[in-house]
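Narrative of activities, Objective 1.

The group set out to show that a structural description can be obtained from nothing but a protein's sequence at a throughput compatible with the screening campaign. Below is one input-output pair from the validation batch, recorded exactly as produced.
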Amino acid sequence: CHSFTVRLFAIEGIILVQKATDYNFVEPNKSLRSPFLQDPPQNSPTRLFGLVDKAKPTCMAFVRAIGTGVLETARDGLSLGLVVPVLVGEAQTIKADAEAIGWNLDGIRIVHSEGEKEAIETAISMVAKGEVSGLIKGQLHSDVFMGGIVKRDAGIRTKRRMLHIFAMLPPNGGRALLISDAAVNVSPNVETRVEAALQMAALARLIGVARPKVAVLSATESLLASIPSSIEADQIARLASSADDNADFAGPLSFDLALSPDSVAAKGISKDSAVGHVAGKADALVVPEIVSGNILFKSLAYCAGGLAAGMVVGGKVPIVLTSRSDPPSARLASIALAALINS
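Output recorded for this entry:
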Protein backbone atom coordinates (compact mmCIF):
# COMPACT_ATOMS: atom_id res chain seq x y z
CA CYS A 1 0.00 0.00 0.00
CA HIS A 2 1.01 3.62 -0.42
CA SER A 3 1.61 5.95 2.48
CA PHE A 4 1.54 9.72 2.53
CA THR A 5 1.93 12.54 5.00
CA VAL A 6 -0.83 14.94 5.85
CA ARG A 7 0.10 18.33 7.27
CA LEU A 8 -2.44 20.80 8.61
CA PHE A 9 -1.86 24.53 8.57
CA ALA A 10 -4.28 27.07 10.06
CA ILE A 11 -4.62 30.23 7.99
CA GLU A 12 -7.21 32.75 9.26
CA GLY A 13 -9.53 30.03 10.50
CA ILE A 14 -9.32 27.92 7.33
CA ILE A 15 -7.59 24.55 7.41
CA LEU A 16 -5.17 23.93 4.57
CA VAL A 17 -4.74 20.20 3.97
CA GLN A 18 -1.51 19.14 2.28
CA LYS A 19 -1.38 15.73 0.63
CA ALA A 20 1.59 15.32 -1.66
CA THR A 21 1.23 18.35 -3.98
CA ASP A 22 -2.59 18.62 -3.80
CA TYR A 23 -4.22 21.32 -1.71
CA ASN A 24 -7.84 21.53 -0.57
CA PHE A 25 -9.41 24.30 1.43
CA VAL A 26 -11.86 22.96 3.97
CA GLU A 27 -14.04 25.13 6.17
CA PRO A 28 -14.87 23.24 9.37
CA ASN A 29 -18.37 23.16 10.85
CA LYS A 30 -19.99 24.35 7.63
CA SER A 31 -22.86 22.85 5.66
CA LEU A 32 -22.40 21.40 2.19
CA ARG A 33 -24.00 24.52 0.69
CA SER A 34 -21.68 26.08 -1.90
CA PRO A 35 -20.06 29.33 -0.70
CA PHE A 36 -20.80 30.80 -4.13
CA LEU A 37 -24.57 30.69 -3.53
CA GLN A 38 -26.35 33.92 -2.63
CA ASP A 39 -29.77 34.08 -1.03
CA PRO A 40 -32.49 35.51 -3.27
CA PRO A 41 -33.32 39.17 -2.58
CA GLN A 42 -36.14 39.69 -0.13
CA ASN A 43 -37.00 43.20 -1.24
CA SER A 44 -39.51 43.77 -4.03
CA PRO A 45 -38.46 45.57 -7.24
CA THR A 46 -40.40 48.71 -6.38
CA ARG A 47 -38.89 50.73 -9.23
CA LEU A 48 -40.24 48.24 -11.75
CA PHE A 49 -43.64 48.24 -10.04
CA GLY A 50 -43.63 52.04 -10.24
CA LEU A 51 -43.47 51.94 -14.04
CA VAL A 52 -46.82 50.13 -14.26
CA ASP A 53 -49.96 52.22 -14.77
CA LYS A 54 -51.73 51.10 -11.62
CA ALA A 55 -54.79 53.16 -12.47
CA LYS A 56 -55.58 50.69 -15.27
CA PRO A 57 -54.47 47.17 -14.30
CA THR A 58 -55.40 44.63 -16.96
CA CYS A 59 -57.08 41.26 -16.58
CA MET A 60 -54.76 38.28 -16.88
CA ALA A 61 -55.61 34.62 -16.53
CA PHE A 62 -53.81 32.56 -13.89
CA VAL A 63 -53.87 29.20 -15.63
CA ARG A 64 -54.73 26.41 -13.18
CA ALA A 65 -54.69 28.75 -10.18
CA ILE A 66 -54.48 26.08 -7.49
CA GLY A 67 -51.94 25.90 -4.70
CA THR A 68 -51.14 28.56 -2.14
CA GLY A 69 -48.06 29.85 -4.00
CA VAL A 70 -50.01 30.66 -7.17
CA LEU A 71 -52.85 32.27 -5.25
CA GLU A 72 -50.50 34.35 -3.09
CA THR A 73 -48.98 35.74 -6.30
CA ALA A 74 -52.44 36.56 -7.68
CA ARG A 75 -53.49 38.19 -4.40
CA ASP A 76 -50.30 40.25 -4.07
CA GLY A 77 -50.38 41.28 -7.74
CA LEU A 78 -53.91 42.57 -7.22
CA SER A 79 -53.02 44.47 -4.04
CA LEU A 80 -50.03 46.08 -5.77
CA GLY A 81 -52.19 47.21 -8.69
CA LEU A 82 -50.26 45.11 -11.19
CA VAL A 83 -53.06 42.86 -12.42
CA VAL A 84 -56.72 41.97 -12.14
CA PRO A 85 -56.49 38.18 -11.71
CA VAL A 86 -58.90 35.76 -13.35
CA LEU A 87 -58.50 32.37 -11.69
CA VAL A 88 -58.83 29.40 -14.06
CA GLY A 89 -58.94 25.90 -12.62
CA GLU A 90 -60.83 23.61 -10.28
CA ALA A 91 -63.20 26.04 -8.55
CA GLN A 92 -63.57 24.21 -5.25
CA THR A 93 -59.83 23.71 -4.92
CA ILE A 94 -59.19 27.39 -5.70
CA LYS A 95 -61.67 28.45 -3.01
CA ALA A 96 -60.21 26.07 -0.43
CA ASP A 97 -56.62 27.13 -1.17
CA ALA A 98 -57.60 30.82 -1.04
CA GLU A 99 -59.24 30.28 2.34
CA ALA A 100 -56.02 28.64 3.55
CA ILE A 101 -54.10 31.87 2.92
CA GLY A 102 -56.87 34.11 4.22
CA TRP A 103 -57.84 35.57 0.86
CA ASN A 104 -61.47 36.60 0.46
CA LEU A 105 -62.36 35.95 -3.18
CA ASP A 106 -65.36 38.29 -3.25
CA GLY A 107 -65.27 40.11 -6.58
CA ILE A 108 -62.64 37.77 -8.06
CA ARG A 109 -63.68 35.90 -11.18
CA ILE A 110 -63.21 32.13 -11.10
CA VAL A 111 -63.53 30.12 -14.32
CA HIS A 112 -63.91 26.41 -13.63
CA SER A 113 -61.89 23.85 -15.56
CA GLU A 114 -60.70 20.32 -14.87
CA GLY A 115 -57.07 19.32 -15.24
CA GLU A 116 -54.09 20.92 -16.96
CA LYS A 117 -55.15 20.56 -20.58
CA GLU A 118 -58.62 22.01 -20.04
CA ALA A 119 -57.19 24.88 -17.99
CA ILE A 120 -54.92 26.15 -20.78
CA GLU A 121 -57.60 25.60 -23.42
CA THR A 122 -60.08 27.60 -21.34
CA ALA A 123 -57.58 30.44 -20.84
CA ILE A 124 -56.76 30.54 -24.56
CA SER A 125 -60.45 30.84 -25.42
CA MET A 126 -60.67 33.79 -23.02
CA VAL A 127 -57.85 35.52 -24.91
CA ALA A 128 -59.74 34.95 -28.18
CA LYS A 129 -62.86 36.54 -26.67
CA GLY A 130 -60.89 39.53 -25.39
CA GLU A 131 -61.63 38.67 -21.76
CA VAL A 132 -57.99 38.59 -20.65
CA SER A 133 -54.86 40.27 -21.98
CA GLY A 134 -52.21 37.97 -20.59
CA LEU A 135 -51.56 34.38 -19.52
CA ILE A 136 -49.77 33.47 -16.28
CA LYS A 137 -48.62 29.91 -15.65
CA GLY A 138 -50.07 28.35 -12.51
CA GLN A 139 -49.82 24.77 -11.31
CA LEU A 140 -49.38 22.88 -14.56
CA HIS A 141 -46.47 21.49 -16.52
CA SER A 142 -44.62 23.93 -18.78
CA ASP A 143 -44.93 21.65 -21.81
CA VAL A 144 -48.72 21.52 -21.41
CA PHE A 145 -48.91 25.28 -20.88
CA MET A 146 -46.69 26.27 -23.82
CA GLY A 147 -47.87 23.36 -25.97
CA GLY A 148 -51.41 24.69 -25.91
CA ILE A 149 -50.26 28.24 -26.60
CA VAL A 150 -48.11 27.53 -29.66
CA LYS A 151 -50.76 25.54 -31.53
CA ARG A 152 -51.60 27.31 -34.78
CA ASP A 153 -55.34 27.18 -34.11
CA ALA A 154 -54.94 28.66 -30.62
CA GLY A 155 -54.74 32.15 -32.09
CA ILE A 156 -51.92 33.28 -29.77
CA ARG A 157 -49.12 33.15 -32.32
CA THR A 158 -48.45 36.09 -34.62
CA LYS A 159 -46.07 36.68 -37.51
CA ARG A 160 -43.33 37.36 -34.96
CA ARG A 161 -41.28 34.58 -33.41
CA MET A 162 -42.25 33.75 -29.83
CA LEU A 163 -39.28 33.90 -27.49
CA HIS A 164 -38.42 34.31 -23.84
CA ILE A 165 -36.77 37.32 -22.17
CA PHE A 166 -35.37 37.49 -18.65
CA ALA A 167 -34.91 40.86 -16.98
CA MET A 168 -32.23 40.27 -14.35
CA LEU A 169 -32.62 42.81 -11.55
CA PRO A 170 -29.57 43.49 -9.33
CA PRO A 171 -30.08 42.72 -5.61
CA ASN A 172 -29.26 46.26 -4.51
CA GLY A 173 -30.96 48.13 -7.33
CA GLY A 174 -29.49 49.56 -10.50
CA ARG A 175 -29.68 48.78 -14.20
CA ALA A 176 -31.48 45.63 -15.29
CA LEU A 177 -29.77 43.18 -17.64
CA LEU A 178 -31.96 41.50 -20.26
CA ILE A 179 -31.18 37.97 -21.54
CA SER A 180 -32.75 36.03 -24.43
CA ASP A 181 -33.44 33.21 -25.05
CA ALA A 182 -32.89 31.14 -21.92
CA ALA A 183 -36.15 29.20 -21.68
CA VAL A 184 -38.08 28.58 -24.94
CA ASN A 185 -36.03 28.35 -28.16
CA VAL A 186 -33.48 25.54 -27.87
CA SER A 187 -31.25 26.27 -30.88
CA PRO A 188 -32.46 29.59 -32.32
CA ASN A 189 -31.36 30.45 -35.83
CA VAL A 190 -30.00 33.83 -36.87
CA GLU A 191 -33.47 35.22 -37.64
CA THR A 192 -34.80 34.24 -34.21
CA ARG A 193 -31.84 35.83 -32.45
CA VAL A 194 -32.31 39.02 -34.48
CA GLU A 195 -35.89 39.03 -33.21
CA ALA A 196 -34.58 38.52 -29.67
CA ALA A 197 -32.26 41.51 -30.05
CA LEU A 198 -35.09 43.71 -31.33
CA GLN A 199 -37.58 42.57 -28.68
CA MET A 200 -35.09 43.21 -25.89
CA ALA A 201 -34.32 46.67 -27.24
CA ALA A 202 -38.05 47.46 -27.23
CA LEU A 203 -38.46 46.13 -23.67
CA ALA A 204 -35.41 48.05 -22.48
CA ARG A 205 -36.99 51.27 -23.72
CA LEU A 206 -40.18 50.41 -21.82
CA ILE A 207 -38.24 50.14 -18.56
CA GLY A 208 -36.55 53.47 -19.11
CA VAL A 209 -33.38 52.92 -21.18
CA ALA A 210 -33.35 55.73 -23.74
CA ARG A 211 -30.99 54.04 -26.20
CA PRO A 212 -30.43 50.37 -25.35
CA LYS A 213 -27.12 48.66 -25.99
CA VAL A 214 -27.48 45.02 -27.04
CA ALA A 215 -24.53 42.61 -27.10
CA VAL A 216 -24.65 39.42 -29.15
CA LEU A 217 -22.60 36.88 -27.23
CA SER A 218 -20.03 34.34 -28.29
CA ALA A 219 -16.89 32.93 -26.68
CA THR A 220 -14.74 35.54 -28.40
CA GLU A 221 -14.79 39.03 -29.85
CA SER A 222 -13.02 37.79 -32.97
CA LEU A 223 -14.65 36.40 -36.11
CA LEU A 224 -13.51 32.79 -36.12
CA ALA A 225 -14.80 30.15 -38.52
CA SER A 226 -14.05 27.54 -35.86
CA ILE A 227 -16.61 29.23 -33.56
CA PRO A 228 -19.78 29.58 -35.69
CA SER A 229 -21.57 31.70 -33.07
CA SER A 230 -18.96 34.44 -33.57
CA ILE A 231 -19.74 34.69 -37.29
CA GLU A 232 -23.48 34.59 -36.59
CA ALA A 233 -23.17 37.25 -33.89
CA ASP A 234 -21.74 39.68 -36.43
CA GLN A 235 -24.65 38.94 -38.80
CA ILE A 236 -27.22 39.35 -36.03
CA ALA A 237 -25.81 42.68 -34.92
CA ARG A 238 -25.81 44.02 -38.48
CA LEU A 239 -29.37 42.86 -39.22
CA ALA A 240 -30.73 44.23 -35.95
CA SER A 241 -28.98 47.57 -36.51
CA SER A 242 -30.64 47.93 -39.90
CA ALA A 243 -34.06 47.26 -38.33
CA ASP A 244 -33.82 49.54 -35.27
CA ASP A 245 -32.17 52.96 -35.40
CA ASN A 246 -32.91 53.69 -31.73
CA ALA A 247 -30.59 51.09 -30.22
CA ASP A 248 -26.98 49.96 -30.54
CA PHE A 249 -26.18 46.34 -31.43
CA ALA A 250 -22.73 44.74 -31.45
CA GLY A 251 -21.25 41.27 -31.75
CA PRO A 252 -19.47 39.07 -31.33
CA LEU A 253 -18.67 39.93 -27.72
CA SER A 254 -17.60 37.62 -24.92
CA PHE A 255 -19.50 37.93 -21.65
CA ASP A 256 -16.74 39.88 -19.90
CA LEU A 257 -16.40 42.34 -22.77
CA ALA A 258 -20.15 42.89 -22.85
CA LEU A 259 -20.32 43.98 -19.22
CA SER A 260 -16.92 44.90 -17.82
CA PRO A 261 -15.27 48.25 -18.69
CA ASP A 262 -12.09 46.91 -17.08
CA SER A 263 -11.97 43.98 -19.49
CA VAL A 264 -12.62 46.35 -22.39
CA ALA A 265 -9.69 48.52 -21.32
CA ALA A 266 -7.40 45.55 -20.68
CA LYS A 267 -8.08 44.11 -24.13
CA GLY A 268 -7.70 47.47 -25.84
CA ILE A 269 -11.19 47.64 -27.36
CA SER A 270 -11.52 51.11 -28.88
CA LYS A 271 -14.72 53.14 -28.65
CA ASP A 272 -14.44 53.59 -32.42
CA SER A 273 -14.28 49.86 -33.13
CA ALA A 274 -17.19 47.85 -34.51
CA VAL A 275 -18.19 46.73 -30.99
CA GLY A 276 -16.89 49.70 -29.01
CA HIS A 277 -20.27 51.46 -28.68
CA VAL A 278 -21.67 48.48 -26.72
CA ALA A 279 -18.62 46.83 -25.13
CA GLY A 280 -18.54 47.20 -21.34
CA LYS A 281 -21.99 48.74 -21.06
CA ALA A 282 -24.54 46.28 -22.47
CA ASP A 283 -28.18 46.49 -21.35
CA ALA A 284 -29.13 43.21 -23.04
CA LEU A 285 -27.47 39.96 -24.07
CA VAL A 286 -28.40 37.69 -26.97
CA VAL A 287 -27.13 34.19 -26.15
CA PRO A 288 -26.22 31.56 -28.78
CA GLU A 289 -28.62 28.88 -27.54
CA ILE A 290 -30.75 27.81 -24.57
CA VAL A 291 -28.02 26.00 -22.61
CA SER A 292 -25.71 29.02 -22.34
CA GLY A 293 -28.68 31.30 -21.62
CA ASN A 294 -30.08 29.03 -18.93
CA ILE A 295 -26.71 28.69 -17.22
CA LEU A 296 -26.13 32.44 -17.44
CA PHE A 297 -29.42 33.54 -15.90
CA LYS A 298 -29.25 30.92 -13.15
CA SER A 299 -25.66 31.92 -12.37
CA LEU A 300 -26.76 35.53 -11.93
CA ALA A 301 -29.75 34.46 -9.82
CA TYR A 302 -28.07 31.89 -7.61
CA CYS A 303 -24.51 33.24 -7.37
CA ALA A 304 -25.02 37.01 -7.65
CA GLY A 305 -28.39 37.42 -5.93
CA GLY A 306 -30.13 38.64 -9.07
CA LEU A 307 -33.91 38.60 -9.40
CA ALA A 308 -35.09 36.93 -12.61
CA ALA A 309 -38.26 38.44 -14.05
CA GLY A 310 -39.22 36.56 -17.20
CA MET A 311 -41.90 36.31 -19.85
CA VAL A 312 -42.60 35.09 -23.36
CA VAL A 313 -43.07 37.81 -25.98
CA GLY A 314 -44.00 37.80 -29.63
CA GLY A 315 -47.50 36.43 -29.13
CA LYS A 316 -50.90 38.10 -29.16
CA VAL A 317 -50.58 38.67 -25.41
CA PRO A 318 -47.66 38.54 -22.95
CA ILE A 319 -47.12 35.16 -21.31
CA VAL A 320 -45.62 34.77 -17.84
CA LEU A 321 -43.75 31.48 -17.61
CA THR A 322 -42.72 31.08 -13.98
CA SER A 323 -41.01 28.23 -12.16
CA ARG A 324 -41.98 26.61 -8.87
CA SER A 325 -38.53 27.56 -7.52
CA ASP A 326 -39.00 31.27 -8.27
CA PRO A 327 -39.19 33.50 -5.18
CA PRO A 328 -42.44 35.50 -4.81
CA SER A 329 -40.71 38.75 -5.78
CA ALA A 330 -39.61 37.23 -9.11
CA ARG A 331 -43.17 36.14 -9.90
CA LEU A 332 -44.50 39.63 -9.18
CA ALA A 333 -41.70 41.26 -11.20
CA SER A 334 -42.61 39.02 -14.15
CA ILE A 335 -46.24 40.12 -13.92
CA ALA A 336 -45.10 43.75 -13.78
CA LEU A 337 -43.18 43.26 -17.04
CA ALA A 338 -46.29 41.79 -18.68
CA ALA A 339 -48.34 44.71 -17.40
CA LEU A 340 -45.83 47.14 -18.92
CA ILE A 341 -46.23 45.53 -22.31
CA ASN A 342 -49.99 45.81 -21.99
CA SER A 343 -49.85 49.47 -20.96
